[in-house]
Amino acid sequence: MPRSLSGRSFLKLLDFTTEEIQYLLELAKDFKRMKRAGVPHKYLAGKNIVLLFEKTSTRTRCSFEVAGNDLGMGVTYLDPGSSQMGKKESLEDTARVLGRMFDGIEYRGFAQQVVEDLARYAGVPVWNGLTTEFHPTQMLADVLTIEENFGRYKGLKMVFMGDARNNVANSLMVVSAKLGINFVACGPKENMPDKALVDVCKKIAKENGCTITLTDDVKKGTKGADVIYTDIWVSMGEPDEIWAERIKLLSPYQVNDAVMANANPEAIFLHCLPSFHDLETTIGKEINDKFGIPEMEVTDKVFRSPQSKVFDEAENRMHTIKAVMYATLK
After folding, report:
1. 84 catalytic, yes or no?
2. Model pTM?
């Protein structure tokens, strides 16, 4: 049992020990069992939280709202147009005001420095719902999903396919190093994680008996993998002009039948969602019309296969976020 997390902010997993991350995962399992059994758990009744979004989302918003309500809290949502932060009011002033009114603050947006500064000035726990650099709540859901399928996570091999510079790849590398998962970033050489972060993670991984590998070779990278993970090729907030460049660069790293066949027979597929695996989205149709590709980072066949655990993973966002809020607010 780690020291209490009460009053702590949840900004990036580098801030947490292996034992603290494991504690949050155990809490999430308990909350999932209670949710499934219909057992009330309004342990934080009387508290109030605010969700401060500069980037819209389906899973992050719904996970925080449902988790907050299940715990008995009042939840206020501020969409990108509903806050004066950075426009008429400084970040520091916004943080101090919200900290006087709420017991906890969730932030989803751009620079990691923003969520760090919110935590510096708010005086209450702040939770990172996503920044350009890190996506820590997603990682807890991913690891919980892995453990549910394999009965463990330590010693497994997880491969991220595609743009390994993004927040999901960064965070997967961190959580893998912390929990003893062998992590592989498989993508173009120019799209690898920042060297400083890689060096930090390699040091942590060595302490936990696992490895960090960077490769542009799909066959070598995915050979014997237990988990194949990918993300969309262009993130929210990036200009549309880079689609052509990314498609050319990342198409060789699409998750398809050949990739899954090269992995272990029991391997699972994960994706943080949303995914462009068919033509049922406006963006998917536009990209197909322009570039002639009906599937992008993952084929529809893999996405809908029994190996795909993406909807279990999405549900687990709620249970793990509930654990984070409870642990830091109790």
Report:
1. no
2. 0.97
41 counts as catalytic: no
231 catalytically annotated: yes
- 71-117 tens-digit pLDDT: 999 999 999 777 777 777 999 999 999 999 999 999 999 999 999 99
| Cα–Cα distance for residue pair 323/320, rounded to 1 Å | 5
Which among 174, 166, 168 has a CA at the least distance from the CA of 201?
174
> Is residue 166 a contact partner of residue 54, using CB atoms and an 8 Å limit?
no
Among candidate residues 138, 226, 254, 277, the one labeled active-site is 138
Structure tokens at 134: 């890190």
Asked if 15 is an active-site residue, the reply is: no
* Token representation of residue 62: 């719904």
Residue 92 CA to residue 302 CA, distance in Å, equals 45
Smallest Cα–Cα separation from 52: which of 124, 141, 143, 133? 124
Asked about 135 being catalytic, the answer comes back as yes
pLDDT of residue 124: 98
Sign of the dihedral defined by the CA atoms of residues 157, 158, 160, 166, in that order: negative
Q: Which of 8, 61, 135, 277 is catalytic?
A: 135
Helix (H) or strand (E) holding 286, with range, is helix 282-291
Active site residue 226: no
Mind listing the pLDDT tens digit for each residue in 1-51? 567 999 999 999 999 999 999 999 999 999 999 999 999 999 999 999 999
- Residue 139 corresponds to which amino acid? M
Tokens of 122: 């708010």
Integer Cα distance of 265 and 225 in angstroms: 9
SS in 3 state form for 184-238? EEECCHHHCCCHHHHHHHHHHHHHCCCCEEEECCHHHHHCCCCEEEECCCCCCCC
Q: By C-alpha distance, which of 89, 145, 111, 93 is closest to 11? A: 111
Query: Hey, is 308 helix, strand or coil?
Result: strand
Tokens of 295: 């599937």
